[in-house]
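> call design_seq(struct)
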């Protein structure tokens, strides 16, 4: 049996992961255009990367149609069977990068709790009839409202700056 030093294994595995990223995008990993709605773990992207991924016309902004197409993929991942999604489903779906690694455990726990509270408040706003299930219609209505509120200059497109400012205010 040939043994390889740990640092060589680490380099080998790291290289394999980096090389596999383009193929993961090509195969529809995560959520977004061409994504597999059944995928259990969406890609965790920052706002700039999310806009780049869903910007179909290359203007570095999201039109309403691009925004809607993106959110259609999110809804499909949240509700694969078409009967709506619950707060538990929503909390289980990770849509952002989450707490940064390397933080002390108490700070990470605090950030995760705040994220859960934000998701619970967002879910409550989406669930307009209060039945604890968000239907496609409720989700679409909510996301249409989000687009309108985030489009602070009224040009019908969301820039990275508008999107970030909107989410900071949530």
């Amino acid at each position: 049996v040939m043994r390889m030093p740990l640092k060589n294994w680490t380099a080998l595995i790291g290289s394999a992961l980096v090389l596999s990223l383009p193929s993961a995008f090509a195969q529809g990993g995560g959520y977004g255009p061409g994504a597999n709605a059944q995928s259990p773990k969406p890609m965790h992207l920052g706002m700039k990367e999310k806009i780049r991924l869903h910007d179909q016309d290359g203007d570095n902004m999201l039109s309403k149609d691009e925004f809607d197409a993106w959110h259609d993929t999110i809804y499909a991942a949240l509700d694969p069977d078409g009967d709506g999604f619950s707060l538990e489903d929503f909390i289980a779906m990770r849509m952002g990068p989450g707490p940064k690694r390397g933080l002390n455990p108490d700070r990470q726990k605090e950030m995760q709790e705040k994220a859960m509270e934000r998701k619970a408040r967002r879910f409550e706003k989406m669930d307009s009839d209060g039945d604890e299930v968000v239907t496609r219609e409720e989700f679409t209505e909510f996301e249409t409202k989000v687009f309108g509120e985030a489009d602070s200059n009224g040009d019908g497109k969301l820039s990275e700056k508008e999107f970030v400012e909107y989410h900071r205010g949530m």
